[in-house]
Amino acid sequence: MSTREKILHTALELINDKGYVHVGVREIGRALKKSPGNISYHFSKKEDILIALLEQYRETNSALYEDYFAGQPSAHRFLELMKGIFDSQFRYRGVFIGNQFVKEEIQSGNRYDYRATYQQRLSGFTRIFRELRESKHLQVSDEDIEFLVAHIALVGRFWIYEATLFDKSPNQESTVKHYLDLLARQISLFATPLGAQDISEFRVSQE
Amino acid sequence: MSTREKILHTALELINDKGYVHVGVREIGRALKKSPGNISYHFSKKEDILIALLEQYRETNSALYEDYFAGQPSAHRFLELMKGIFDSQFRYRGVFIGNQFVKEEIQSGNRYDYRATYQQRLSGFTRIFRELRESKHLQVSDEDIEFLVAHIALVGRFWIYEATLFDKSPNQESTVKHYLDLLARQISLFATPLGAQDISEFRVSQE
DNA sequence: GCTTGCATTAGTACATTGTACTATATTTGA
DNA sequence: TCAAATATAGTACAATGTACTAATGCAAGC
Predict the structure, then answer these.
(1) A51-205 maps to CATH 1.10.357.10
(2) Residues A123-178 pLDDT 10s
(3) CA B193 / C1′ D24 distance in Å
(4) Whether B122 contacts B149, CB under 8 Å
(5) Which CATH class is domain B1-44?
(6) Which residue of chain A comes nearest to B152, CA vs CA?
(7) CA distance A119 to A122
């Protein structure tokens, strides 16, 4: 593992534990027995660490989406996809919660074009729901799809904020299960009998 | 207006504009032509400013809830309540977005018992939905109510994060309208014909 | 085997930040 | 009017992010 990777690994652990603001560059260095100047060498700004972690997260997720689109659309597989995404978000929770600091980066789009990724994800979900309509898992109008996409964009991004709001270190399994369950309920409001069966099978498989 | 109130007022403006982290105590002082030591006198910690603003927000909202519960339950009045809350959240948006810093406060509950307020709000929503069921505006099971409360707890808290994620200073009216609309759609999934009419009347009144 | 160039690391210095502390000024109340 | 409380200014200090410089390690080429 390269020093750069070690820094990212240690930083993520510390950030998940204590929050981005409360993790100093010197602290990361201390944990790795490196000087602060050396951390500076690999990541000239502290924000760069956050950006790099976001990038890792994005790549993980892209793989999950690719997997999904490689197979047949179904409500069950959709929920499996979302479980993968939620697990991944949990793993990078400190990054999301500390993302106030990358907001200007996000907004400027200089180093990391988050907006493009975001738009890509939104159209990905639109495609997913359209395919689930075609495969008779969902019974939705175009307006419904728009609504569901807006819903999943918000809930799918911010559930981890809520989960860590009162509980500093929540249990991953039960937390992810809880929010997946809410999502499953939301989807089932638009499900055909086929889709509903698929969803309930998924929920049983998560017991 | 007392100095304390002036500080809060100026701080909120600056925080909404630039974000909590990027507003220094000296900057607030400069804007008010006060020394940093004086700011320190009124708020010995910078976080205290955030806590005080949260307290202001909480009081505003408590008044809105009281108003609602003083009248007859209806889907229309419920959405009016939510509009009031959303407007208020928009006004304090910087506080919410910067609340990573009060998280430890929230979690410890030493100075500000946010958890209690939160629980109170949740049971408030439970009551609201139960009353809307009794008044034949909603057709919901107890499980549905639990689901709706979980939904509104998350969406109602974090829509403002999403709204300011890509757009640094979004338009209040259109933003609030957008998220109210999403909420109205969510509620209408469980609405009786009476409730649905109420909701569509509200949406028309917002045009 | 030695040197040259480049990547890495350490050490340090500096501006800025939150905050504590002290001294001065202003207001208040009896 | 004067003492006490409140408010304000000024400053000092530790900690932080970060820029800069010097030292070290290391692989490739002759």
Answers:
(1) yes
(2) 999 999 999 999 999 999 999 999 999 999 999 999 999 998 888 889 999 999 99
(3) 78
(4) yes
(5) mainly alpha
(6) A155
(7) 5
